[in-house]
Each structure stands twice: as C-alpha cells, then as structure tokens.
Amino acid sequence: MTLPPYAARRCWHAAINPLHATIYFSPDLGTEFAALGVTHRVAVNLASRSAALGAVGPGAVTATFYNYRHDYVTAHLPAVWDTITPEQALAARLRAADATLRRLLGPEAIASPELAEAADLALRATEGCIRSGRTLYAAHADLPVPEEPHLRLWHATTLLREHRGDGHVAALLLTGLDPVEALVSHSATGRGMTPKWDKAIRGWEQADLDAAAHRLRERGVLDADGDLTDEGAALRERLEAETDRLDAAPYEHLGADGLARLHELGGGFVRRAVGAGAFPGDLTGKG
User: Fold this and answer.
1) Which is nearest to 243 in space by CA: 157, 159, 138, 163?
2) Computed from CA positions of residues 152, 49, 202, 250, in that sequence, does the dihedral angle turn out positive or negative?
3) pLDDT at residue number 286
4) Could you tell me the pTM of the whole model?
C-alpha cells in the first residue's frame, strides 16, 4: 500500500461508515416502510439492507450479513416480500436517507460545495472497488447513482461500507471467529455495539452472548472479566489488518490526498450528524 498506515481504516470508521449507518437508527426509515405496510423494526432493517439482492430468502441474508441469528432472520424473510417488493424497499430507503440527512445536517450543509466535493471523492473511491466475492457490495453497485449530492454521498458510503463489510466477513472466517464471537470480541474492544444492541438488532439472546464469551475465554481471547487479553487484542488487530488489506483498492485508487480530504469533509458531516442525535448514546462500548 502507498497510503499512510491506517489512513483508510480511520477514514472508513470516522467519515464513511457512520454516514451510511445513520439510516439504521432513523425514524424516517420506519415511517417510509410503515406507509407500505411493514411496521416491525426487524423486518424493516432486514428488508432495507437486503433489498438490493432481490427477494431472497433467509439463507442468503444470514450468510451475507454474517452476524445475525438465523431464526431472527427467518421470522421476517421471505415473508416481508409478500407485502412489498425489493424495488419498493430500495425506494423507501432512499427517501428515508434523503429525509434523515436533511434533518441531521441542515439545509446549509446539504447545499454546500463541501458536501458535493465529498460525494465526488467517495464516488471516485468506489471506482476501485472489486465485485468478485463481494455479494452485498456487488448488489448495491448495480443500483443507479442518485443525482442530488447528499444522496450521491450516501450511496457512495453505502458501496464503500458493503465493500469493506464483505471483506471483513472473509477475514472473520479466516480468523476463526463465529458470528457471536465476532460481536462479543468487538464489544470487548469498547468500539463495538453493546450487548443490548447485539440482542436488539442482531437477535442474539443473553445465553448466546454468554456462551460465546465462555468460548473466547477458553481460547485466551477474553480474560475472566470479559476484557481482551493481549492475545485477544492481537487477534482483533490481525482481523482488522486483513480487512484493511482486502479493502485497500478503493482508497489506493483515490490516493492519499483525496483520502485525507474525504476524511476531513466526511468527518465534519459525521460530527454534525452525531451532534444532531443520529445514534443512541448507548450504542457502542463494553456494556
């Protein structure tokens, strides 16, 4: 890689993924789906993210999402497609993204040349993404690019988010962390979702989290207090480093200067969104 160490990872965490993820905690998403007859929060979440794949069943979604409990998925898929089509779900999600970003960022930021510049930079990065072996990214890459700058930016961050996510799944398999172990060990870093949200969003029960923590303690990944051991911290860093390697292409394509500018601009919009209440205060941490 020709980029500064960790530059792409830091940009993704600070300026790319959070912009995309505003949709998952937005009341606008629920409003749009409720108007189409889908009111269950989990069904909304699953349908909105998987719609790019088409009307697929629970097996494909569990496989590509990786860290959702399978029976949590089967409770809503494929049944949700009896109520709405994937095309309707995608259109509803884009309307929700529009409303969410307008509310969180405000009209001045939405109309700013800086936002348009960030959208152009993020879209330029997506030119370096790779379809092969990237199921969720490739499905979203087939969608049209919106015209309005804030939606272009959201679309680009979605592509970059799913591109890294697909690579991260491959890295998890190589690292030997199953879906629940991945969540529990990430929570132990203090940067992952809290157990409350692992249960609410991913469908796991406390017994699942406890069993995964027990397995991780036996492997020397967690200590008796549930914190990462030195070995566990090293394992998580190997995981992130492998994910970085698999996700390098778009940021190498953008270049160091472009990446730094995207980090600066996108990070500013993320801070504005966070300040406007984009995410629950108890979303991340050890719990």
Assistant:
1) 163
2) negative
3) 83
4) 0.96
Q: For residue 206, with 0-12 CB atoms within 10 Å meaning exposed, 13-18 middle and 19 or more buried, which class applies? A: exposed
In sequence order, the 6+-apart residues with CB closer than 8 A to the CB of 84 are 33, 36, 37, 38, 47, 92
Q: Residue 1: is its pLDDT beyond 80? A: no
**Which single residue is written with the structure tokens 């990786």?**
66
Q: What are the φ and ψ backbone dihedral angles of 160, each rounded to 5 degrees?
A: -70, -35
In the chain, the amino acid numbered 54 is G
In the chain, the DSSP E strands lie at none
Average pLDDT estimate for 91-111 = 98
Q: What is the pLDDT of residue 235?
A: 97
Q: Report yes or no: 130 and 249 within 8 Å, Cβ to Cβ.
A: yes
The amino acid at residue 167 is G
CA dihedral 91, 259, 139, 246 (to 10 degrees): -150
pLDDT tens digits, 130-177: 999 999 999 999 999 999 999 999 999 999 999 999 999 999 999 999
* Residues whose CB is less than 8 angstroms from the CB of residue 177 and which lie 6 or more positions away in sequence, other chains included: 185, 235, 239
- Phi and psi for 78 in degrees, rounded to 5? -90, 10
Q: Are 85 and 54 in contact (CB under 8 A)?
A: no
Q: Is the Cβ–Cβ distance between 266 and 16 less than 8 Å?
A: yes
Positive or negative CA dihedral for 107, 108, 112, 118? negative
pLDDT at 287: 73
d(C-alpha 57, C-alpha 59), whole Å? 6
Enclosing H/E stretch for 264: helix 256-275
- 96's tokens: 């929700």
